[in-house]
Amino acid sequence: MDTKDYARRSREGRSEGRCFICRIVSGTHSYSHHIVCEDADTVVFLNRYPTLLGYCLVAPRRHVESWVHDLSETEFLDFQRVTHQVARAVAATLPTERMYSLSLGSQQANAHLHWHVAPLPPGVPYHQQEFNALRKENGVLDITDAAQAELARAIRSHL
User: Fold this and answer.
1) What span, in angstroms and rounded, lies between the C-alpha atoms of 30 and 156?
2) Among 1, 53, 91, 155, which is 20 to 30 Å from 98 by CA?
3) Which among 129, 105, 134 has a CA at the least distance from the CA of 117?
4) Hey, is 67 helix, strand or coil?
5) What is the pLDDT of residues 53-92, one digit of tens each?
6) Diameter of the chain by CA atoms?
7) Burial of 22 (0-12, 13-18, 19+ CB in 10 A)
8) How far is it, in rounded angstroms, from Cα 20 to Cα 41?
9) Cβ-based neighbour number of residue 72 at 10 Å
10) Which residues in the chain belong to E strands, given as ranges?
11) Surface-to-core class of residue 89, CB atoms within 10 Å of its CB (0-12 exposed, 13-18 middle, 19+ buried)
12) Are 56 and 44 in contact (CB under 8 A)?
């Protein structure tokens, strides 16, 4: 994976008003994502560039940039309920020592609110855990489209 190109595309998308999550929701993204589940308010899909098997993104369907300012407490708790359900489904699908859950992105790139849900498998050496396990610069998994589709189906079956 070319991380410099990824960063460039993320920033250009923001400046051009091309939010990648809004394009996924509308079906206009240039490549498909493996949707794990979706409802009227939320979409969950597998990370296109996973560093950990089962790495999902959970996002509101509407364009929201700040969970602090743009969501009411009730909306935030509903969103976190879905995030928790997804994490439990991922853990039921894959061996998981620790489930990472965090919100990344900024006004500069990937501004649409999304939560990262990433399962750390057992046995990963400590120096490769935490943020190191999530950094694309350390490499992404070589996983086929068919394997991602099957993984999305397996996670979905636990929801």
Assistant:
1) 24
2) 1
3) 134
4) coil
5) 999 999 999 999 999 999 999 999 999 999 999 999 999 9
6) 42
7) middle
8) 17
9) 8
10) 35-38, 42-46, 56-60, 98-103, 115-120
11) buried
12) yes
- Residue 6: left if φ>0, alpha if ψ -120 to 50, beta else—which one? alpha
Please give the span between the terminal C-alpha atoms of the chain, in angstroms, as a whole number.
31
Mean pLDDT of 5-10: 54
Q: Is 46 exposed, middle or buried (0-12, 13-18, 19+ CB in 10 A)?
A: buried
Tokens at 152, concatenated: 């999305």
Whether the Cβ atoms of residue 117 and residue 56 lie closer than 8 Å to each other: yes
Determine how many CB atoms are found less than 10 A away from the CB of residue 20.
Answer: 23
Contact 54, 93 (CB under 8 A): yes
**Pairing relation of β-strands 56-60 and 42-46?**
antiparallel
Task: Give the span between the Cα atoms of 80 and 74, in whole angstroms.
Answer: 10
pLDDT digits (tens, 9 = 90+) for 116-140: 999 999 999 999 999 999 998 889 9
